[in-house]
Amino acid sequence: MTSKDITITYGAEVGDCTRPYYVTLGRSDITVEEFIKYVLDELKSEWGYIRIYKRNIVNPWSADYEFEYSHGVSKSSEVIPPYVLASCIKTLSGSGGWSRSDWDIIIEGEKQMTYEENVRAILESNFAGFKDEVIDTACKMILGLRTYGEWIPCSEQLPKEDDTTQVLVSVNERYAFYAIILMPSRSVKTEYGLGHIDAWMELPKPYKKEGDPE
After folding, report:
1. Do 140 and 194 fall within a single domain?
2. Most buried one in 31, 32, 165, 202, CB count within 10 A?
3. Are 92 and 34 in contact, with CB atoms under 8 Å apart?
4. How far apart are CA 145 and CA 32, in angstroms?
């Protein structure tokens, strides 16, 4: 997000020496995270709060999330979930005076993120500044921590794109059996007809006696 993506019109000053901000966004896909970064990078002479609402009602006392900032630095102790940061802004308004600026965001609706996207977003948020290679490695390690016997919804994570991936699958929330899964169609032929895979789990490694070759 750049200054070209936002137009701010300042209203008339009121009794407490503040004035309303009327904001027009140049893109419909600007996210909460993009705006927070814009404020920290571009409004370094200001301080205040960014309040986030999941409902179409702006009330500073009932914000769902609140982000405090001061002169380009986050001062917020509240952790905003990754799916909220990834949500698009529906409306944006503000008010301020002197060097304080407060912003009110109504989001379109919480973006549904996959398990892997959530893991990556949390890592990037907590380890900002680390190289992408480090984040990639940490993400892969965490994804690998899923234990055998745990169902993984396809909406969260898919098996590796390999035509010969053998997994245990749940079909139409009723049947579970071993299958060679073909992605991304997630359709398998069963004795009950064509089924849609809802979830899957990795198979344990075959038993090998100690000393047997790999």
Report:
1. no
2. 32
3. no
4. 30
